[in-house]
Amino acid sequence: MTAQDKDAIAQAEQAERVAKSHGHLVIIGGGEDKQNDMAILKRFVELSGGPDAKIVVITAASSVAQNMWDTYDRAFADLGVTRHSHLHLQSRHDANDERHIRDVVDADGIFMTGGDQKRLLAIIGGTALDAEMHAALKLRGACIGGTSAGASAMSGHMLAQGRAELHPEKGSVSLGAGLGFLHKVVIDQHFSERQRLSRLLSIVAQNPYLQGIGIDEDTALIVERGVGIEVVGQGAVTVVDGRTMSTNVAEIANHETPELIDVRLHLLPAGSKYALPGSDGDDARRIPPPLLEFLENITKRNPIS
Fold it and tell me: Where do the domains of the chain lie, and which CATH numbers do they carry?
């Protein structure tokens, strides 16, 4: 067999692996159990390939990175993972350093901890490490996990700051650029516990092309690219869809409450599992028509960006 034949076979095998490797996102609302049954972290390990998987923990969102790492070091060790490491990034220089990028190149699971999503994006957004994370998900079918701030950072539009008042309020929230693993959505965390429905409605009122996703604590929205979604944990995922709503938000002044008519809300408690028509979603229920466009959007297998 010639070297050219071997290259052709290797390329064909790589293409086959890519076709079968959907890649997963595990988007956690914060406060996940790290000591008892650890259902969400256990699922993250499973989707990464099991206890033999190589898992990298990124603590860039946290100002107390070592404490954060100590917590997840214990948790993953308790789950039987032997190859888990701390990727300690303090600057954009770190996120462009070839040594750190190599840690991600062959990682099966990449986990972003909580903290401040603005800090996380300031350090890794648009860097070589950011690009390598996209390649890991989209070319190698790796599992990308994020909790709290790490969850908010996953979408292309990221909630940067905002209040959670009793009613939606024009101008009370601001968005920034996120990592872009998902598009046309914005993610909020600690959702029910911190009563953030009004905050999510405020976002949707001013950005009706975005669908809002609110994730409760100890709850995860799992997205399998090209296949479907699943909710695991103890709470629920709330989806706010204002694309067909009527609103006077353009006419009112800042800090006033907008009129919102015909806003659609979906509640997906833990155990909800839906698959795209024609996908290999195993035992998942087929998607109801009102949820179909949402599912098609968040499971879309976007090219590397």
Answer: 23-167+217-236+267-298 (3.40.50.880)
